[in-house]
Amino acid sequence: MNRLQVLALAVAALNLTAILLFPPYDYISLQRGNIPTFAGFYWVLATRSNLVINSNFLSLEVLVIAINSAIAWLLLRGAAADRPRRRGITRMQRGVLWVVAINLVAMLLFPPFENFTAITKAVLPTFDGFYFVFGDNSKRQLVTPILYIEIALVLINGALAWLLFSRRDGKQLSPTQLRELAQTMQEDRRR
Description:
Blueprint: H1 3-21, E1 24-29, E2 35-41, E3 51-53, H2 55-75, H3 91-109, E4 112-115, E5 129-130, E6 140-142, H4 144-164, H5 175-190
Antiparallel strand pairs: 1-2, 1-3, 4-5, 4-6
Helix pairs in contact: 1-2, 2-3, 3-4
């Protein structure tokens, strides 16, 4: 582990500490039929009435920090000055990692919301739009199923792009080697 990877882990630990000290809260109002609406981020030890921690959004925050720290770990692998750069990751794969990390952060900064008047207990929730998470969202609720789908699709697409841009080592078998391999496999089946 090099110095930059240690720094990446320290930044991840600081981020985790910050989100656990200031978790996302939902406000439960009797006027709105006990429907939780997003209230913002508050100090975890403060006592507030009618506020409950939004555990779905908090778990997504922890997941994104873990994924981004793993991406930073990969990007900073072999980055020490005393060692040559490792040739296992191509330039395109590094670009994929950066795009995935930026997309994950953008998804948490602008999550999907729905208006509290349109909230139903349907399997597929309604959708009002993407709003800045630190803005006034007192009359909106986070749509965590859509956020989970967004994050899953970004991770799947990132993994596919990672595989697409992987370096081919060029160690392919020649036609004679393939024939010899096929013959030995046939002989093994006969036994």
